[in-house]
Design brief:
The complex is a heterotrimer of chains A (578), B (180) and C (275). With 578 residues, chain A is of the alpha/beta class. Helix content of chain A is 31%, strand content 25%. In chain A, a hairpin with a 4-residue loop joins strand 28 and strand 29. In chain A, 46% of the residues are buried. Chain B is mainly alpha-helical and 180 residues long. Chain B has eleven helices and no strands. Chain B is globular, with a radius of gyration of 19 Å. Chain C has a four-stranded parallel beta sheet with strand order 2-1-3-4. A four-stranded parallel beta sheet of chain C has the order 6-5-7-8, with helices on both faces. In chain C, strand 1, helix 1 and strand 2 form a beta-alpha-beta unit. With 275 residues, chain C is an alpha/beta fold. The chains are: A alpha/beta (578), B mainly alpha (180), C alpha/beta (275). At the A-B interface, strand 21 and strand 22 of A face helix 2 of B.
């Protein structure tokens, strides 16, 4: 008979406020193979973990159940604690009595207590049949892949290459440099974008550890953290194949198209352009020493109106989010315009001025004061052609007036959106995206540069709108994450993978196409299905599809799962849970 | 939320809390010049519960339900049903209105629809002129000339046409709060 | 294809020529229009201003009659169209309004007939091609701008249009009959017809701007599909002399079925445009 220890966490009042933890302990002590049961205020605290460790040693506990929060929170904590005193970590199971019990039954303590007891009994049923497993050890390829060679991709690649790792860089466009290549000067110091970008591009091209593919796309990714197999279409006949251990996705952004803004003329009104097109006009003007000229007839621009939040902060029709970078680049564009076109007037239509980075507030204020920029608070309702000029209806919320304004040029600070093709990239790297198409970080505060797939990291505006400073900072963080990954000689992987019962397998092959990780293959020689344990993620798709129950998950055997389910189909519990 | 704001939300089906005062509604309004408070101000006043000010305002009668504001609102707030709700409340409560001519016209129009089931311009306009006392005001001559032109072009028939289903029309009015 | 037809109160008064030309164009195209029985006033712009339920109930009765008639319903007048569509939307959205309309008018909206303005109708597949095929007198000397105003396009929730800012089908129809339809930036701006009674000067300010802009765009006339827009623009344009044409008059002229009587109903005489 096993010797099971059960620990019930109060989680302060989160669990103990609803579940009668003393009654639960009293009930559990009645079970013959429970050699120890206790409750404690915070099991995850150091003293809590010490109680577990002591009990394991004193009572020779060989199976452990901790009834606490979700296993996502502390499974690892308790497995480590058990492991420290010699208990195999795979003989530890978590019974989730918080998210799945106390939090949802706060008004009914009796039901919650009964349900907690059943969850614990079900978990015990499982742990009795657990096997002691060892982590799978996989060797690691210390080469990196960076997707996208904008300022973020370049920064990540150079850091990795400098650290001595071979780095493969794939860029869709023929030229590297991304959006920064389209810019004139940068905020807040009016540094020429070329001066920022060119030395970095030079370094990238010359670096002996960098292998750069431009005009190329990643077309296929298989494998897992430590050993990804990547196919890259370069335009030549055969795709290049590379093996890499870690991946940085830095696919950047584009501006939401002007065509989407029907009330702003949908691109049909001449001299209504987006902010990147205006960067081009500024660039031209700086290079030629001529004033900024409007596209329609080349006339020097006298009046320009910038419309911020074009397509942003509009949950009804366009993008619900703030695009973050527009407030500052609009201020910059207005200031640079006045430098290039002395005597020209710049007006900015805005809703709020958001200056959330270093020196930004001072910069915006200085541009307003020194340049005499007119900031009009209010959202533009309509933009149209009036003679050879552009007219617009806007407002000044500070006086309450409705205004009709005319200009030679209107610049739309269009919303920032993910680069086209983001969905394909997301599918390729199994990285999830949010409702706006930006790559989803693992945890917004604690794991902000990791994607939902291990070994795939996120840099730059593909994760959320970012300026150059933030893009570079995040890129350097991803380089650092990849380096800490590469500091390992091999990777330990959870052994909770599929296995095949050779006596039951009929080699029907259903498990091969169903596997999302490419971890299954049919060994035609012996007519058996095999599992590549390095690739298997234990998702259970093969278990579900196997007609013979030949595929089973280690420590998730069919008999274990059914045993747990049975505990919940007992009539008294079914009734308690409605 | 202020009780008045809840009342208007309930009647109009619009979520006023979504307004972030960007003023795009005001910027596109064709008639805001003749409001005492601009469109976004009306939303703000509802949020603050300024019931008397709004129900006695010109703004609610100068809105022509062109739906431009709602169509462009980034937060999907439609001002027309909100204005409808404010107007209906003002009428239900019998408040003195600063735009008697506008209200007199609406009443004459709906009265004609109630009486005949269809609107008869000649009697409707006569009632309107009488009730609004418009003929006493400056500019009436111009209006009268315009009306006379239409009459001369045979655009204003003398006899009303009416519907058979008058009982149904009456039921619609009976089920409403409207007193003409 | 035959349709049910809701002429609206102005069909026999201020919008006589709108009604007459609509009927003429449909019959020339071989599409019958059957006036729905015993229709009533839609409430105009006034009913919803005074009372929410009257504003929905009056058009809902027409919707109920149209449903019983079983054919898609054509409503030329933009105001009537918008009111009936609002009643339809209320029925489709369910809720208290729908329940009350159902009870008071004793009808249940099944959604089996479509409610169409002339703009919606022109957008139906094959309609413009059908027009092109029957043109007898191409209007190659006619230069117009198309004006949609408010009620044909907004609100999107009611009209279900994909573009409330730049509809183009009236222009396409004008071009199909040989006319030149110019682009301008005022096609969905409001003409202020609701202000005409009580504040004629204010309506005049809005209309005059529209007429000026139409002239500036190079147009000899504005084409509309709304009785209220037409009379308001025709009466109140500070003497600019710009004819305001119904789309059906334009189409009728090209199809060779125009009557002199139509032009005589206008304040700014358009007959010269068709000589």
């Amino acid at each position: 008979m096993s010797r099971i220890g059960v620990f019930i966490c109060w989680c302060g009042s989160n669990i103990a406020g609803t579940v009668d933890v003393h009654e639960v302990v009293a009930e559990l002590r009645k079970l013959p193979d429970v050699v120890h049961a206790e409750n404690y205020m915070y099991m995850c605290s150091d003293p809590g973990q010490d109680r577990i460790k002591n009990a394991i040693q004193e009572k020779a506990i060989d199976r452990l159940v901790v009834a606490s929060c979700s296993p996502r929170m502390h499974e690892n904590t308790f497995r480590k604690a058990a492991s420290a005193v010699g208990l195999n970590p795979y003989l530890v199971e978590i019974a989730n009595v918080r998210e799945q019990c106390s939090w949802v039954h706060q008004r009914d303590k009796a039901t919650a207590t009964k349900k907690a007891l059943n969850i614990i009994r079900a978990t015990m049923d499982k742990v009795r049949r657990n096997a002691a497993l060892e982590a799978i050890r996989v060797p690691l390829t210390k080469r990196a892949l960076v997707v996208g060679a904008g300022i973020a991709g370049i920064s990540a690649a150079l850091d990795l290459a400098d650290a001595g790792y071979e780095t493969v860089v794939v860029e869709r466009e023929a030229a590297v440099g991304g959006r920064v290549r389209q810019l004139s000067k940068t905020f807040p110091y009016h540094e020429d974008a070329r001066d920022i970008l060119e030395p970095r591009i030079q370094a990238l091209r010359e670096h002996q550890n960098v292998r750069l593919y431009t005009g190329s796309r990643v077309t296929e990714v298989t494998g897992y953290v430590g050993n990804f197999e990547v196919a890259i279409a370069t335009g030549d006949a055969d795709p290049v194949r590379e093996t890499v251990g870690g991946i940085v996705v830095a696919t950047g952004y584009r501006l939401y198209p002007v065509e989407a803004m029907a009330e702003y003329g949908a691109g049909r009104v001449p001299d209504v352009i987006d902010a990147l097109a205006f960067e081009g006009l500024l660039r031209q003007s700086m290079d030629s020493g001529e004033p900024v000229r409007r596209p329609s007839d080349g006339k020097a621009v006298q009046d320009v109106v910038f419309i911020q939040c074009s397509g942003s902060r509009d949950p009804e029709h366009h993008k619900p989010y703030c695009s973050r970078i527009c407030c500052l680049y609009t201020s910059k564009q207005a200031a640079l315009f006045q430098e290039q076109n002395p005597g020209g007037r710049a007006t900015v239509s805005y809703m709020d001025i958001r200056t959330d980075c270093k020196n930004a507030e001072e910069y915006c204020q200085k541009n307003i004061e020194e340049g005499g920029l007119l900031y009009l608070r209010g959202r533009v309702s309509k933009v149209w052609r009036e003679g050879d000029r552009v007219a617009l209806w806007t407002a000044d919320t500070l006086t309450g007036e409705k205004l009709e304004v005319e200009a030679d040029l209107v610049v739309l600070a269009m919303a920032v959106e993910p680069s086209p093709g983001y969905a394909e990239v997301a599918a390729l790297f199994r990285a999830s995206v949010d409702q706006n198409g930006f790559f989803q970080e693992s945890h917004i505060k604690l794991r902000p540069v990791e994607s939902s797939t291990r070994g795939v990291y996120l840099a730059g505006a593909s994760q959320y709108p970012k300026d150059i400073t933030d893009s570079v900072a995040q890129a350097l963080a991803t380089a650092s994450k990849v380096q800490s990954l590469f500091a390992n000689e091999e990777l330990a992987q959870d052994p909770l993978v599929a296995r095949v019962d050779p006596d039951a397998c009929s080699a029907c092959g259903l498990c091969v196409p169903i596997c999302p990780y490419g971890a299954r293959e049919l060994d035609e020689r012996v007519r058996l299905s095999r599992v590549n344990e390095a690739l298997c993620q234990g998702c259970g798709a093969c278990v579900a599809v196997c007609p013979n129950k030949a595929c089973q998950l280690k420590n998730g055997l069919v008999v274990q799962v059914l045993g747990e389910i049975e505990m919940f189909t007992e009539p008294d519990l079914a009734e308690a849970c409605g | 939320m202020h009780a008045f704001a809840s009342e208007i939300q309930e009647r109009s089906g619009q979520n006023l809390s979504r307004c972030y005062q960007c003023k795009k509604c005001t910027a596109g309004c064709p008639t805001v010049t003749w409001f005492e408070w601009p469109n976004h101000g009306v939303v703000r006043m509802i949020q603050r519960g300024l019931r008397d000010e709004l129900l006695g305002s010109k703004a609610i009668w100068m809105c022509v339900t062109c739906e431009t504001c709602g169509t462009r609102c980034p937060n999907g707030i439609y001002l027309s049903p909100i204005m409808d709700a404010l107007r209906a409340l003002a009428v239900e409560e019998g408040r003195p209105v600063p735009e008697p001519a506008v209200v007199a016209f609406h009443k004459a129009f709906v009265g004609s629809a109630k009486r005949f089931g269809r609107v008869h311009e000649a009697t409707m306009l006569a009632e309107f002129m009488w009730k609004s006392k418009l003929f006493l005001q400056k500019g009436f001559v111009g209006e009268a000339v315009g009306g006379a032109k239409l009459f001369a072009k045979g655009k204003i028939p003398l006899l009303p046409s009416s519907v058979k289903g008058k009982a149904e029309i009456a039921k619609i009015f009976a089920e409403s709060e409207l007193k003409l | 294809m035959t349709y049910s037809y809701y002429p609206g109160c102005t069909a026999h008064s201020t919008g006589w020529e709108f009604n007459d030309s609509t009927v003429a164009v449909f019959s020339t195209l071989g599409s019958g229009l059957t006036e729905i029985e015993d229709w009533n006033c839609c409430g105009g712009a006034s009913a919803h201003n005074l009372d929410h339920f009257v504003g929905l109930g009056l058009p809902a009765r027409n919707l109920s009659i149209a449903q019983a008639a079983g054919k898609d319903l054509i409503i030329p007048c933009a105001g009537c169209y918008n009111n009936v569509k609002k009643a339809q939307t209320a029925m489709e959205e369910g809720g208290e309004d729908a329940a009350k309309l159902k009870r008071v008018l004793d009808f249940d909206w099944q959604g089996k007939v479509a409610v169409l303005s002339l703009v919606d109708w022109l957008e139906r597949p094959g309609v413009i091609d059908g027009l092109t095929a029957k043109v007898k007198r191409p209007l190659s000397n006619l230069k117009v701008v198309a004006y949609y105003g408010c009620q044909l396009v907004r609100p999107q929730r009611v009209t279900g249009r994909s573009s409330c800012e730049n509809p183009t089908v009236l222009e396409e129809a004008c071009r199909a009959v040989g006319a030149t339809a110019l682009d301008w930036s005022y096609k969905v701006d409001c003409c202020g017809a609701d202000l005409a009674f009580g504040h004629g000067d204010r309506a005049e300010a809005l209309c005059t701007k529209l007429a000026q802009q139409a002239k500036a765009a190079g147009a000899d006339a504005i084409v509309v599909s709304c009785g209220l827009c037409q009379i308001n623009l025709d009466m109140r344009q500070s003497g600019l002399g710009l004819p305001i044409l119904y789309i059906t008059e334009v189409l009728g002229a090209a199809l060779g079925v125009a009557k002199d009587k139509w032009w005589k109903k206008h304040i700014n005489d358009p007959s010269g445009l068709f000589r």
